[in-house]
Amino acid sequence: MLYEREEAGEAKNLPTYPGPNKMRDCYCTVNLDQEEVFRTKIVEKSLCPFYGEDFYCEIPRTFRHLSFYIFDRDVFRRDSIIGKVAIQKEDLQKYHNRDTWFQLQHVDADSEVQGKVHLELRLSEVITDTGVVCHKLATRVLECQGLPIVNGQCDPYATVTLAGPSRSEAKKTKVKKKTNNPHFDEVFYFEVTRPSSYNKKSHFDIEDVDEVDKMEIRVDLWNASNLKFGDEFLGELRLPLKFLRQSSSYEAWYFLQPRDNGNKSLKPDDLGSLRLNVVYTEDHVFSSDYYSPLRDVLLKSADVEPVSASAAHILGEVCREKQEAAIPLVRLFLHYGRIVPFISAIANAEVKRTQDPNTIFRGNSLTSKCIDETMKLAGMHYLQVTLKPIIDEICQGHKPCEIDPVKLKDGENLENNRENLRQYVDRIFTVITKSGVSCPTVMCDIFFSLRESAAKRFQGDLDVRYTAVSSFIFLRFFAPAILSPNLFQLTPHHPDPQTSRTLTLISKTIQTLGSLSKSKSANFKESYMATFYDYFNEQKYADAVKNFLDLISSSGRRDHKSIEQPILLKEGFMIKRAQGRKRFGMKNFKKRWFRLTNHEFTYQKSKGDHPLCSIPIENILAVERLEEESFKMKNMFQVIQPERRVLYIQANNCVEAKDWIDILTKVSQCNKKRLTVYHPSAYLNGHWLCCKATADNTPGCTPCTGGLPANIQLDIDGDRETERIYSLFNLYMPKLEKMQEACGSKSVYDGPEEEEYSTFIIDDPKETYKTLKLIIEGVGNLEQEHAQYKRDKFKKTKYGSQEHPIGDKSFQTYIRQQSEISAHSI
User: Fold this and answer.
1) What distance in Å separates the CA atoms of residue 158 and residue 224, rounded to the nearest whole number?
2) Where is the C2 domain (predicted)?
3) What does the DSSP assignment read for 39-94?
């Protein structure tokens, strides 16, 4: 289980554009090797662009480098690479969860390498008629995997070269069309040593066997290109022949390496630098019974008195950032239906510690982070129903809404822009304040608890019951979703700069409208925003906010009728293969706009067009990956329908493919006729490629992947989250032990608190110590299980296998660590 979270913070000192204004319009991409999985917004006219964007994903495949590319988009909308930062997988822990400035490096074809090659080498002795011993080398190129896609295609071939101080002999495989996982299985023979009488032109006499030690076999991978610039280099492998002296035959997988062409690159300083914060975790999840002791302690957190002595609260105390603790805790409590009592308990404790009602829930506490995470998980559908239609209209309309006189473009009218913006704000405000009945139950129950705790603590302040709730629903939920709709799945991509500016102005106004502060104009630093807000200084807006807050924070305030209108879950362009619905139709591949709602899965030619095909959710019988051999295309999956009809789809990258598979599986999970087996390959040329069965209605040959819960938003693996919490406790074990010392100190000494213990909230030292003991014991047991798992894995794993090719530095590090552990135990 691999997780990664990156924050693309900012770049600085980028090289100037060779034009009159010298500024650049830059964006940053996140890549697994060379596959792009995320792209930031474009920051215009800057050599020090600030992005400040978070990207979090579960990594669905192995990788060697996590790379970040800075691109510049010119006036003709052409993108050119400025530079990159490439972090090897084994080095990610060095930069774990800390801001680091990286120098941008030059990008060239020789350094952009990924993939692995499978070789078999055999060195044989041959005795001639005269009794002289010669050596011959057989090099078998079996296959490659994971080669990069170059300009949308990959037609690879390999060259095999025997090179020495005074000779070079090269041979070449056939070109394999349209695949980045080519199967070659070709053998090439080379004469390594010859008798001295051998005198063929262009060959060399090699009598000294020591010369063999200076020779090497080189395998280069190339993409056969039709372009005039020649074939593209994909990677190389160099193997000295001396390692064959010990073993005449050797078969292994190898990682391809960049080519060292000796070119002198420019100084890194010439390209500027990029600030990143990377969090990378790699966990192994055991079966559920392993986690029972630790999980039981965590789930009792809501019932512990005081809650500061609970395991969940302690996790928040020892983690470097509250967010680290909040993500797995919320998911675990949601999975087991304990989120409301837990958040109610920690929120009540925080309210009791708050002295000023104006600062209630304003800090980055465990409570606020847990509520944020709950709203993200439980409230995504709510945002889709409430905001998506108007956000789409704003993105497509491109109405000018700039109200800063300094930023007005030529030909724009300030009053017209204000009116455009006012209409957008009015409409969004109306849909929000009339959406109370759609607010998810779990969010309403939490808001009810916040309202009651705040009203009880500050009985003299009649507004605190509203501000306690508005600080979350407006400040931390609706306003961020309007500001960055792509992060909340309201838009598939970043809005363009003009639309982004419009959304920023709307977000600021909505945030202020929801705050219910008494002097709202004073909330704005900019005079033009204060002037604009005068439009909304009417009592009807405050009344609408209070009515909305009353509705979403009142217990038993709504009926539970299902919402009839379909909820858009995901959309975007993908490539599909025709299903053959027409008897004589072409089964070719076409780019289409796909939309998934809780009612149907459709595709159309372009966004907004009439659907060309509609698949009701109840007709989705299975959603599974498709093996690449079917169509020689990556990131493909299949949607299986009644009567064995199959829709084959290619996503844009591996992360997006996983997202589509997951959400399609979730929405169709309760279908009564779901399949239990499927074909992992396509039916082509009269047979299934996977099992070779000839009948197209043959039942599947492979079990379908495991079922998922029907509730889309709360699809959570409790064991996975408990493993994540174990990893955090294990990482911060020194703080747990320090907290134990603090409990002991407080129990026996009632004087001023020692400075090193002052960071911990310990209301009851005895109860806290008791919980800490259970945590440390549970973590220790799991640590032993992980150590045993690693030892067993180490015994079974072969270096040079397909899973761990030669050149896998992370595995070499692992071998070294295991050897040290074994030596220590001996």
Assistant:
1) 10
2) 1-102, 113-254
3) E-PPBPS-SS-EEEEEEEEEE-S--SEEEEEEEEE-TTS-EEEEEEEEEEGGGGGG
